[in-house]
Amino acid sequence: xxxxxxxxxxxxxxxxxxxxxxxxxxxxxxxxxxxxxxxxxxxxxxxxxxxxxxxxxxxxxxxxxxxxxxxxxxxxxxxxxxxxxxxxxxxxxxxxxxxxxxxxxxxxxxxxxxxxxxxxxxxxxxxxxxxxxxxxxxxxxxxxxxxxxxxxxxxxxxxxxxxxxxxxxxxxxxxxxxxxxxxxxxxxxxxx
Length: 192
Description:
- By secondary structure, the chain is mostly helical.
- It has six helices and no strands.
- The longest helix is centred in the first third of the chain and has 67 residues, at 2-68.
């Protein structure tokens, strides 16, 4: 009888140990996923900061060009329209598409500036162009960081056995901030 009780206590202890190990693993996995999600949200916030800076520069750039190129109304309206679309985009995919369209309209704006030598020499225009170039570089870096973080997060939530915890506790796959095929993939050609 004492031997039977000893075996039951031993089995109970082993089961309790396994339960504790599983519980610790679930907690550690959950905390790691929360940390990755927070890093991903921060990476998106960094993109958002740079895009806001870009959106703030565009009206000043348009106003500067408007004074020199009054008959280029359609190009200027397209830039403003693209900016508004980018500001109002909600999802990562919508935002990427709108930002790609905005990049294309900015290329058109700089192409218009090519036809106006006085505009190309204007200090305000040159300063705005430099600010926009700097911002574009920061956006590119922030996109790269976001996509690297997204890759790490998506990989982690799909790996076995973490995928069980991720699925049960609501860690969905995230989208990359991608440039679609087409003219957006081409580097802008601006020369003054």
